[in-house]
Amino acid sequence: MISESLLLSLVAGLATGIGGLIVVFLGSISDRFIAGSMGFASGVMLLVSFLNLFVESLDLTSYLYVSLAFVVGSILMIFFDSLLPHLELGKRENGIVKSKLLKSGVLILIGITLHNIPEGVIISAGYTHLPQLGVLIAVAVFFHNVPEGIATAVPLTSGGTKKRDVLLLTFFSGLAEPLGAILGSTLLINASDEMIGIALSFAAGVMTYITADEIIPIAHERGHKHAVSIGLLLGIIFMMILNNFLRL
Known about the structure:
mainly alpha, 9 helices
């Protein structure tokens, strides 16, 4: 079980590097594309949080425990996020000196690396309950990480970082995800159904907070609100289709 969760989290984590790869090869990325892709990631994350994680947890434990775990997951992410560099990935680059852009890119990189750890735990929690659910969560995190990788690479490249180093840094940040998966699998390997249900709802709270506090605000900072809305709806529709395909 640990090896499967590890592989899924590795694929999802490397998506950050794919985002960096896109920036390195394309050079400039339009605000409309970033806004739309962030909107898509929001739709994916929200649907998985409620339709899959929250609903699945209700089959394993009581509504009270599910609700409490969701709230605790959200509150802990608020506390955790307050200790990290905030991911203000949508900041405009015009008129900002290279040194500030570079500093911004480094802070973003640190924040994303540390945020990838709980995402790895989420993947392992889902896979522990149901392998298809683990796959679905990994897909959601993958589409969440690609635009984050883009938003990390843009200030780094604009700040003068070599393209090779941008690729290495963005791919390296994704390696924190498998560490989270190992942690989650170790904690849940002998867990009861009730504990797994609590873990799934906790994960739903974490994913909802990440979406509400980071992805959606970042998308709107780029402007193009219709692109954000269309992307969000497409993300929801995409995950509905994938749910049907996996028969969850």
